[in-house]
Structure formats: C-alpha cells, structure tokens
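To make this tangible, we now present a fold written out as tokens:
***
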Amino acid sequence: MHGYELRKRLNTSLGVFRAFSYGTLYPCLKTLVIQGWLIEETAADSDPPAAPLAGRRAKIVYRLTAAGKEHFEELLAHSGPDAWEDEHFAARFAFFGQTSKDVRMRVLEGRRSRLEERLEKMRASLARTRERLDDYTLELQRHGMESVEREVRWLNELIETERTGRVERPSAEHEHDNNQENGGRPGDRGTA
C-alpha cells in the first residue's frame, strides 16, 4: 500500500498507543526496503493506469517480500523481554491474532511480571517519600499506581481467557456468543 494508506491504518490500529508521523514512517520504510523485507513499486506498476497529473511523481507502493514475511513470522514467534516492554507491547498485542497461543501467553505473563515489579517499586518509593510530597504530587503518584494496577487486572483477565479458551464480554452478549462459536479468541467474531 501507499505510505499514506499505511500511516492511516497504523494510526487507526495503534493510534491510542502511538501516533506515526511521515517523518517516522518513511525512514522506517526505507530501512525495510534496504533490508530486503519490502519492495517499492510505482503505483503505475501495480494499479490500472491513471491519467498522470502534470508535475506530480507517481506514488510509491510498498509490498512485503518473501524475506519480509519470513522475518515478520520470526518476530511474531519472539517472546523475549523486549516484547513486553512499554515500547513494544502495544504493537505486539496488535498482532496477537496472528501469534501462537504459547507465544501470546509468554508475552502476557512477561508483561504482567514486569508491571508487578514496577508496581512494587512505585509502592516502595511512595512509602519512602510520602511525607515530602505535596498533595498534587501524591495524587499523580496514586494515579500512576492505579493505571498500572488496572493494566495488571486486564492482563490477568487476558491470561485467564487464554488458559480457558473463552472470551467473556458482558456488554456484548451477541458478540460473546459468536466468539464462543469461533473458539473463544479475541478477533474470532462470527457474522450475524
């Protein structure tokens, strides 16, 4: 797809976690081309011919190569510490539908472990410094701890769902029924 289309799709999929600018996207695409994981084609090579606009160059379309697909599959199979760190977790989670269950479990459990460590450090730090902090700083600390606690609860639910092979969504009963029919994994929604 075109860089514009790719950026739009990435921002739709991951925008809550990270926004992609053209200044970030295009250098990354160029690196992937150099690595041999993508190829560049002009839109004219891949689309039906369109009337050229004077003074405008053809759009470049990026396609995944066989080596790129193989590399992507290797990345999906990786479940080491960088997969559950803040910088990479959201992107990894976005591809869980294409990731094996054992890898998903390792990533989820690693992320939970990392956050539990962070939570313990936050609690210890707050206990040591509580008297020296003003009310607003204390409130900010409390907010940060609640955010981490909330993510740990969410991860616990995801891990339990992975273990049992079921999905519970009390707010969407019909969607829940469809998920059950399709093996209970997020993203396996049937059609009504």
Observations:
- Confidence is low (pLDDT under 50) at residues 169-185, 187-192.
- The chain has eight helices and two strands.
- The longest strand covers residues 38-42.
